[in-house]
TrEMBL record:
Primary enzyme class: hydrolase
Alphabetical list of PANTHER family matching this protein: GLYCOSYL HYDROLASE, LP05116P
PROSITE patterns in the record: GLYCOSYL_HYDROL_F1_1, GLYCOSYL_HYDROL_F1_2, PROKAR_LIPOPROTEIN
Protein name: beta-glucosidase
Coiled-coil boundaries: none
Annotated family: Belongs to the glycosyl hydrolase 1 family.
Organism encoding this protein: Loxostege sticticalis (Beet webworm moth)
SUPFAM superfamilies linked: (Trans)glycosidases
EC number: 3.2.1.21
């Protein structure tokens, strides 16, 4: 007969629901390398890292990265070692369409993705494909990139090509990865490519064009492809949890959430087809006070509202951490220049006592994940939420107990949210392996597998966390 403690331990094991799916993620620029191989044209990350190398912490780039372009069989072998249900990766637009347009399909680039997908399917690992994970063809950037409304058509043409090429085998599609991050950091500031730095204006133009481009791609899939091949299509939004500093900041924290992720979620999932009311009102008022003749936040036309609302089968969520929020008193009224953070009227910070890894912004706060999941469930009438990224950065080494604590803590929070009624069928670790991290280069390690960047093959070695994740995936359970 079982001892009391063994019995208690067995009973306290938390099971994941039937059909729950486990995966890991990467993105094209961060792992593929082969930046100019076989006809691929440059994207904005190639351009930025070649013209301004030390905009990246270690002055390195993704020219070779993990060489996944050549090492894809090893990547699939790792997925098998982990026992994954699926693998999330992104397509490089400029590898498939070197002119950016569908006039010339690059067969060699297509072959790479076919090889990867077919190798995965051999072992019953499902592909989850992101169409756009930040690597815009440089030529399109030279025509304004995401600030040019014509990009809506350029993106839809690219999406249609991707659905035609891979739709027979890919059943889960994501249009965009984290639009706020590439719109705000790339167009509003100099943090990411293309470093446009026109704050308070360009990131909102980008946001609108991305939302309409997403919606068009969704409807192309829904009307032209889904009837014959099935499948689902959604968008991945990056969202932190915003915790009010005091009771007086509760409303403010809510508003910050509306700015930071409601900006993309509200138009699609609230069924209004429009930006959150707090953004519309606040930015219109500030724009007028600043002398603008119209709001810096562009308006959707009635036709755009129609296609944006409800344009996703699932809410893809990338979640990493939590920020505290308090009122930005220091601004004391209106700025005389547009600023996203002034529009938001808040300051954000993380207390020092929250435990951190290698990444300065990423602290281990699992209760924030639970709060965010239950908030999304309530706010948008319980959509399926696919966790498309969650993970922790270390400085390297195979003993990554911090990552193990983090993943287990966040999975516990996820199970709490499921118990409370949230519909969460998918969880994805960022990342399968170390890779080129935006701005940080190779100084931060997110991988379940360590990558040796000195070796020509970019040798991959499992960390301790890989064995822990493998056991979670195998047992479909978490012992608290
Ligand atoms: C997400 C991105 C990933 C990955 C991760 C780690 O925002 O979708 O591509 O890079 O964050 O982020 P960072 O490199 O900023 O630490």
């Amino acid at each position: 007969c079982e001892s009391k403690t063994v019995k208690e331990a067995r009973q306290s094991v938390r099971k994941f629901p039937d059909r729950f799916q486990f995966g890991t993620a990467t993105a094209s620029y961060q792992v593929e390398g082969a930046w100019d191989a076989d006809g691929k044209s440059p994207n904005i990350w190639d351009h930025m890292t070649h013209t301004d190398p030390c905009s990246i912490d270690d002055c390195r780039n993704g020219d070779i990265a993990n060489d996944s372009y050549n090492q894809y069989k090893r990547d699939v072998e790792m997925m098998r070692e982990l026992g994954l249900d699926f693998y999330r990766f992104s397509l490089s637009w400029s590898r498939i369409l070197p002119t950016s347009f569908p006039d010339k399909i690059n067969e060699a680039g297509v072959q790479y993705y076919n090889n990867l997908i077919n190798e995965m399917l051999k072992y019953n690992i499902q592909p989850m494909v992101t169409l756009y994970h930040w690597d815009l063809p440089q030529k399109l950037q030279e025509m304004g990139g995401w600030t040019n409304p014509h990009i809506v058509d350029w993106f839809s043409d690219y999406a249609r090509v991707a659905f035609e090429l891979f739709g027979d085998r890919v059943k889960n599609w994501i249009t965009f990865n984290e639009p706020r991050e590439f719109c705000y950091q790339g167009y509003g500031t100099v943090t990411k490519a293309p470093k446009l730095n026109i704050q308070g204006v360009a990131e909102y133009m980008c946001a609108k064009n991305v939302l309409v481009a997403h919606a068009k791609a969704y409807h192309i899939y829904d009307k032209e492809f889904r009837p014959n091949i099935g499948g689902t299509i959604g968008i991945t939004i990056g969202a932190l949890w915003y915790e009010p500093e005091t009771e007086n900041d509760v409303q403010l924290a809510e508003e910050v959430g509306q700015f930071e992720w409601g900006q993309y979620a509200h138009p699609i999932f609230s069924k209004t087809g429009d930006f959150p009311p707090v953004m519309k009102e606040r930015i219109a008022a500030k724009s007028a006070a600043q002398g603008f003749k119209r709001s810096r936040l562009p308006e959707f036309t009635p036709e755009e509202v129609e296609i944006v609302r409800g344009s996703a089968d699932f809410f893809g969520l990338n979640h990493y951490t939590t920020n505290m929020v308090y009122k930005n008193e220091s601004l004391n009224g209106y700025y005389d220049v547009p600023s996203y953070y002034d529009d938001m009227e808040a300051k954000l910070y993380q207390p020092n006592h929250w435990s951190a890894g290698a990444s300065f912004w990423l602290k281990d706060v699992p209760w924030g994940f639970y709060n965010l999941l239950t908030k999304i469930t309530e706010e948008y009438d319980n959509p399926p939420v696919f966790i498309t990224e969650n993970g922790f950065a270390t400085r390297g080494g195979l003993d990554d107990d911090d990552r193990i604590t983090y993943v287990r803590g966040y999975l516990n929070a996820l199970l709490d949210a499921i118990e409370e009624g949230s519909n969460i069928p998918v969880y994805t670790v960022w990342s399968l392996m170390d890779n080129f991290e935006w701005m940080r280069g190779y100084t931060e390690c997110y991988g379940l597998y360590e990558v040796d960047y000195e070796s020509p093959q970019r040798t991959r070695t499992p960390r301790k966390s890989a064995f822990v994740y493998k056991e979670i995936v195998r047992s479909r359970a978490l012992d608290p």
